[in-house]
Amino acid sequence: MRRHRRAKIVATVGPASASPEMLKALFLAGVDTFRLNFSHGVHEDHAKVHTAIRALEMEVGRPIGILLDLQGPKIRVGTIKDGKITVAPGEKIRFVLSGTNGDQRSIPLPHPEIFAAVLPGHDLLIDDGRVRIRVDRCGSNFIEAEVIVGGVISNRKGVNLPGTILDLSPLTPKDRTDLAFGLALGVDWIALSFVQKPSDVIEARALVGDQAGLVAKIEKPSALDHIDDIIMLSDAVMVARGDLGVEIPPEDVPGRQKEIVRACRLAVKPVIVATQMLDSMVAAPTPTRAEASDVATAIYDGADAVMLSAESATGSYPRETVEIMDRIIRSTEQHKLYRSIIDATRPDEETTAPHAVAAAAADLAEAIHAPTIVAFTSSGTTAARIARKRSAVPILAITPNLRTSRRLCLLWGAHSLLSEDAHTYEEMVDRATTRALSEGFARVADLIVVVAGIPFGQAGSTNNLRVVHVGRPQLCV
Fold first, then answer.
1. Is 35 annotated as catalytic?
2. Which whole number is the average pLDDT over 117-145?
3. Choosing from 24, 74, 76, 94, which is the catalytic residue?
């Protein structure tokens, strides 16, 4: 079950992929973590998928990650007379807080937080930016605006406000119910939508605690203004390019993606690049060449994982999509320019002892041509510190913690294994060599690098580095 690539694949589960048979096919094709999108479906259906994934995990004997993606607040216009209206550039229109059967002079926008925060000059983007409105005047219950880009406004279409920070919790009552349900199930990651500022992550952390890893979805321009603090407060980050690309100019998205990926690598936090990666494969058996290049770009950027959304959830070719993504990742990582590009974006070294030990392990493994770095880790931090270097040497991450083994399914380069904790140097060496052999990462007479924290089982204490001769463990330094 060894993956011959470093970056991971996240696939969204939906009607096209929810059966136990298809979940197994997707895992065998390359999925490392499954995403449950709580914007769709009911609890009963998600529980069945969760049960099927855990049964598959037992069958294949490998940890599998499960990510619960919360819906977050949805801002929409209300109901409109005849279901829709057409507006033209230069036309003056008016939004109101309450009402039904709206027209150009009274389009319902039932969100008081918008009227409290919006200012003249701010833009409203309707239907994923197809219609752009600019605010002229506003009050506590009205907004008068000019149409900049015309089009059709129909019932319940979404509204984005790129220049406005709303006094709105990222957790709706529905999200709180979904969160409690997911945590009771035992999901590994919680993805938080509509993050605007660091306090949004703090609010979610108070509910999640350490029961699951917390993924901040970067999809609002205001989040970019606080990106370092948001990364610091999160366990991982998702570059949600769909919504982000609506609210910032599309030409800015590639650069922002690179910035976020590098910042996460610096902070030793996994980062997922998501949305529309192989979107044409929802209906076609092969991607466009531009889509293949898009996936490859995320890999060259150093992303820990790339994600499939509708392609695997509702598409006609879920298994083929995963296979293609796996092939693109492997081809990219094997390209002659990959290593030089990854090394060129390497963040500065941290000056702390744990980071120095992890960095030394990666450098040493390459210098002696070790086939693997074995990392003993209770929280996943030791493996993450090694992964930060994006070494050419794969990481065999051994942990006694089931939750950690599943969360490591998002970490670049890590092949996670569940094993009893070591208590002595001798046990550590024996486990490292035995598992490196059994998992196919090393052969007898190979030199491998072993990293651990002493005392064993203490989270975050990366302080011990050894070179072990497989088959002759007494010859180690």
1. yes
2. 95
3. 76
